[in-house]
Amino acid sequence: MHRATLLLQAARSVKPGEESTVEGWQYRRTAGPAAAGVPPRCSSPRSTSRGRGPRFDAECEENYAFWTWASIEVLRHTGARIEELLELTHLSLRQYEAPTGETVPLLQISPSKTDRERVIPADPDLVAVLARIIRRIKGTGERVPLLTRYDGYERVFGPPMPYLFQCPSQHRLQVISPTESASSSPSMRSGPASSTSMGHR
């Protein structure tokens, strides 16, 4: 994820036609065509290598790298299943005040196969991961966006909820699906249209 972040920062720091160096590799940014009907806030620069290196979308790669890292970390710290992971919302975060006066962060996991709700203590590492997720999906806003999620088993859309695992797809925010989280899916890799792409020399 670190390298993907550096590549995205490098692409955004230069103008079309200019080059930047990331970990010894040179990259050149070029302007790509604007997609019709895309709001200006979704329009980002594009960049490609000057040599034979393949062009790739740095913004999409960073997006994919972040959510892969976030998924692995939350699964590792909680022991949750993928479907439980994707049902986590901002409301899943709770606090418990111990008799000693200490505040204990908790994570509420909705029932899945066991049909039993679980509430687990969140250690500092898990809290740090969740905080980073929340900062990312809030962006410049004050609240986590409310999204509907399609239940593939019940075949219905649920009510709008502040889901934690949401990312840009097809020019709008969507809740990550189980199939997307288990593979290198285009949806998880996709960012805003005309997003930043790069290639190396």
What does this structure look like?
By secondary structure, the chain is α+β, with helices and mostly antiparallel strands. It has two domains: 2-57, no CATH class; 62-188, no CATH class. Helix content is 30%, strand content 22%. It has six helices and twelve strands. It has helices at residues 2-13, 58-78, 82-86, 124-138, 178-181, 186-189, and strands at residues 19-22, 25-30, 46-48, 56-57, 93-97, 103-109, 118-121, 150-151, 156-157, 166-169, 172-175, 197-198. The protein has a three-stranded antiparallel beta sheet with strand order 1-2-3, covered by helices on one side. A hairpin with an 8-residue loop joins strand 6 and strand 7. Helix 1 packs antiparallel against helix 2 (58-78). The chain is globular, with a radius of gyration of 19 Å.
Mean pLDDT: 78
Question: Mind summarizing the main beta sheet?
Answer: 3 strands, antiparallel
What is the radius of gyration computed over CA atoms, rounded to a whole number of angstroms?
A: 19 Å
- Secondary-structure-based class equals alpha+beta
State the end-to-end distance: 21 Å
Strand adjacency order, main sheet: 1-2-3
Shape: globular
Regions with little confidence, pLDDT below 50 for 5+ residues: 33-50, 184-188, 190-195
The succession of helices and strands, N to C, reads HEEEEHHEEEHEEEEHHE
> What's the structural domain tally?
2
| Extended strand count | 12
Number of helices: 6
The helix fraction, in percent, is 25-40%
In terms of DSSP E residues, the strand content is 15-25%
